Amino acid sequence: MRVSLKPVLVAVMLLSALSVSAQRSGQTKDPTLNRGEGLEMNRSDLDKMRNQNQDKNSRIVDIYIFGASFSLLDSVLYVSYPQKMENVTVNNRRFLKGRADLEKQFADYLSNGSESSQLSTIYFSEKLKKLEKNRTRLIKRNSKRNRFDLVQMPEFQFTAIPVEEE
Q1: Is 122 part of any domain?
Q2: Contacts (Cβ under 8 Å, ≥6 apart) of 77
Q3: Is residue 158 situated within a structural domain?
Q4: What's the structural domain count of the chain?
Q5: How far is CA 41 from the centre of its chain?
């Protein structure tokens, strides 16, 4: 007599898939509560909780930073030199508070007050060696096969991020 394990495996997979899909559909874990019952939160409450959680894990550190920018309309890659910024707030070692302000500083410097289609980003790290490695990797990757013409910006300096009072 041959015993096949296929029906048993299919049943186990079906049961596990049902429990996963029930959790993904927005239903609560408590089966007695229907959707819309119990505690509800709006978007501002969720943002407040996330910010409080990030503020708990935030640190004030010295970082090294450089900016990179390119336009979709031309083939020029602008890269600034690494520079040190002191007393900057970093959340969870990955998120720089005021990152959008720094990106805007670099984009405004490149556009000289005119409307531009520059896409800017910044790279940062607490270690200069790691940041220089990322910078050389970015330059090497984008200069292969004449993808971008490189323009290095030694004269650009980031200004300090304004500290938000709460």
Answers
A1: yes
A2: 68, 69, 70, 139, 142, 143, 148, 149, 150, 151
A3: no
A4: 1
A5: 25
